[in-house]
Structure formats: structure tokens, C-alpha cells
Amino acid sequence: MVKLRLKRCGKKQRAIYRIVAIDVRSRREGRDLRRVGFYDPINNQTYSNVPAILYFLEKGAQPTVTVHDIFSKAEFFQERIYN
Question: Who wins on pLDDT, 38 or 28?
């Protein structure tokens, strides 16, 4: 099963996160299938590769709760039908 979840990057005390499609059995820093965006909590910036995210959601990937909240704040689901 594939999930959309966060992968930590950056320096100490200055974390940024990549939003990646990754196998459930992989660890947080494990090899990802594809990078689909990033999230910077310090500057509150988000970048999303919308076609890649839609591709993985159509294939059955589940976003984690945190990634779902990030997408909701970015108004990703308001324009699209997602259950």
C-alpha cells in the first residue's frame, strides 16, 4: 500500500518536509516512489505537484492525517472530489 506522507529534510532546528509517495513498510527516511511536493512549517510555504498527487490518489494512495491537513489548508480538496 502506498501513502502520501512527510519526509524530513533540512538542518537542525530548521526542518522542511518533502511530501512523498512511499510504501507503508518503509521508514520515514526510506526510499520514496516519487516526490510530490514540499512543506516548510517555519515560513508556512507549500508546493504541490497536483498531477502527481492526483495520479497517486487515483491509484489508491492514502494521505496521512498531517498531509491531509496540509492539503486542506492549501484548499486542494475543495476543487476536487475526494472521499
Answer: 38
Inter-residue contact 36 to 20 (CB < 8 Å):
yes
For 20, the grid coordinates are 512523498
Element (H or E) spanning 14, and its range? strand 14-23
Residue 19: DSSP 8-state:
E
* Model pLDDT for residues 33-72, shown as the tens digit of each residue: 999 999 999 998 899 898 999 999 999 999 999 999 998 8
Which pLDDT value is given to residue 79?
60
Nearest residue to 41 via CA among 82, 81, 78, 6: 6
Cβ 11 vs Cβ 18: under 8 Å: no
Question: Considering only CA atoms, which of 36, 30, 29 is closest in space to residue 61?
Answer: 36
Distance CA 36, CA 51 (A): 9
| Contact assessment for residue 19 and residue 3, using Cβ atoms and an 8 Å cutoff | no
